[in-house]
Amino acid sequence: MSAPAPSGPPGVTDVPREQRLILWIAILASFVSFLDGTIVNVALPAIVDELGGGITTQQWTVDAYLLTLGAFILVAGSVSDTYGRIRVIRWGLVGFAVTSILIALAPSAPVLIAARLLQGVAGAMLVPSSLALITSNFRGAAQAKAIGTWTGLTSAAMVAGPIIGGLFVDLASWRLAFLINVVPIGVTLWMLARLEQRDVRRDDARVDYLGAFLCVVGLGGVVFALIEEPNLGWGSPLVWLPGVVGALSLAGFLWWQARARAPMLPLSLFTVRNFAWGNLATWLVYGALSLNGFVIVVYLQEEGGLSATVAGLTTLPITILMILLSSRMGALAGQWGPRLFMTAGPAIMAVGALMMLLVREDLNVWRQLMPGVVVFGFGLTVTVSPLTAAILGAIEPERSGIASATNNAVSRIAGLIAIAGVAAIVGGELDLDGFHRAMIATAVAMALGGLVSWLGIRNPAPPAEAA
Known about the structure:
By secondary structure, the protein is mostly helical. It folds into two domains: 17-197 and 264-459, MFS general substrate transporter like domains (Growth Hormone, Chain: A, Up-down Bundle), CATH 1.20.1250; 208-263. It has helices spanning 17-51, 54-83, 85-104, 109-124, 127-137, 140-171, 174-179, 182-194, 209-232, 237-257, 273-302, 308-313, 316-336, 339-355, 365-393, 400-420, 422-426, 432-456, 463-466. The radius of gyration is 21 Å and the shape is globular. The N and C termini lie far apart (42 Å).
């Protein structure tokens, strides 16, 4: 007799055992990828203190992971369809555990950055396959609710990361912050072993290796130029040459995707209205979200004089709101449609970012920062579940793997570009003026994300009308 499956996550307790198990696997597999993407932010000052390199090391520590994650997440969508989602999740979990250990043992900044590059490849295998498991096993309102639950718990990992990282930095070492991944990875591998479902593959799926190469070179060149420009200037061949090569490679990538027999990014997906406009909104919202998270936790430590733990705890209201309300927002979006939520949510986040302009040199976290954080967190909760459901719900289930991979790649690449441009946005130094400039940039991008959603997103027809 098999042991009972884990209780369902909040909001999904009335589904069969196999579906509950699938949802937990999807949540935990994505959890480690999201957690590691944000846990690093609060550890950046401690990493630089030990390994050196200043803001350039900080940017590369974040962007090395986002670079390979954003580039290979598209490949992972094809790999998922070719070899099976469950198998790819298992590969990603093992690779993530190994690279987490390598990062914890890194003796220098270059070694750490190289390990982060490899970790991004492993992380790319987790998210699209996890979402594809949900979209292929849940339908209708149950799918919207399941995606809401997945979004709430995995997004909570994104904002809980700074809290967990801060505790490790202050009480032990920044190195241990990366080893925490091993625990959820072990639990997820155990659940995979108990899953009775057969893996799903597409016989006609192929891996686009040339597309992957052009994507990696393109993103790498552009990001390298953005990060190094404040140090060397645009006149340096070490800046403009990688930038030009990167831009040409990205153009070549789009050209190839329009002609490849099995492209890693089927451009036909963008002929679907909600998918195209939803990904444009994703680009704006997630780029601003990454910029905001990076700037806040680094500024609070380096300029505000707060400990890593306290800096991380400032995101706690966001975590609580995401856990409590994301499933509900997903269910409401399933009933009323996503357009209103995707418009109002970014607008609320824009207001929250502008409220953070109250921060002054004589920092008072409770009065100057926390009101804006709470408003920002509520806006994020309103946005994320409906946005994910709108984009994936616009694509047929047979292409859910590449659809989820594309949306996740857009969000990661948006964060990648935002972090690469931090020095230009803040004016070269993250002082109070730089902090204020970053909050204004965040508010502008969020407001544009809401406007794009209002103009472009259309609520799907009710089931009876669609039939």
